[in-house]
# Entry
Amino acid sequence: MKEGLSEKLITAILDYLPSNKKLVSFLTDLLDLSRESAYRRIRGEISFSLEEAVTISTKLGLSLDELIGQSNKKRAFFDLNLANERDETEKYSNILNSINNIYVRMSKAQNAQIIISNNRIPIPLTLNYEYTKKFRYYKWVHQTHNVPINFYFSDLEIPRQLNEDYKKYIYNYMNVKNITIIFDKNVFISFIEEILYYYDRNLIKKEELKAIQSELFQILDDLERMLLTGKYKGDTNIHIYLSSLNISSNCTYLEYDNSACAQFWIYTVSPIIVYNNEVCQLQKKWLESLMKYSSLITKSNESLQADFLNEQRDLIKSMER
# Structure
């Protein structure tokens, strides 16, 4: 008998839950259900509503395409990751966790890989550094919330919850065994220009600018170690390509066992996500074609490595005021 949506959801939740977490507790907490209502869904007496299915799939980083059996090749569902919470911390936390949940599933998969095109510094490279990760959050708050015109960088504190989310994000990202990154040759410049914009508006102090600059040098040192060793941290294998063409937008292809996901980084933090297999394969094909116009610089091509690193160091030095 063909498995229905409710059965698929229950199976997916059980795969996701740690051994010490009960299914009924997960459903009551996430969907705000009574225990009896949760049990009735577990027993199949009541089907999950589409809204409940969306909530569960978002929490688990699942493909709603696959869950509902969507097979029309002319149509695909895109997850815009729209946050309804009023609290800015909760919104940002949910964005991070929706991406992190995909990394959790990838870390459990037998075979997993990530292919990324970047025209700016990848988020994971900044999360171990206080000022750069704070600046990403600061910029997001500035762009998405009604804050005063003179909302200073020093006025913002990263909540404890976000720091915990950052730790989970980087931990699970590092558990993905194979990562390929295609860099634009000016990967640092966008980040630097954004920082200088807020500095020129006197929203970032000089000592804060120097601290960010110092961290960017450290991030570049981390990148240099990756180029020399082909490792990120732990057992993660990194392959870094330098594109001969300008990369117009950041996108990611994620593959784990028989599942795939494509992320389009149009917004600062939150990507547009699609799970439709045809769309994902088109994105993978485009990324692989971009490699043809790129040079592998991990553990190879020392001259190109040096030129790239020196150009980025010069850009970081240019931040001095």
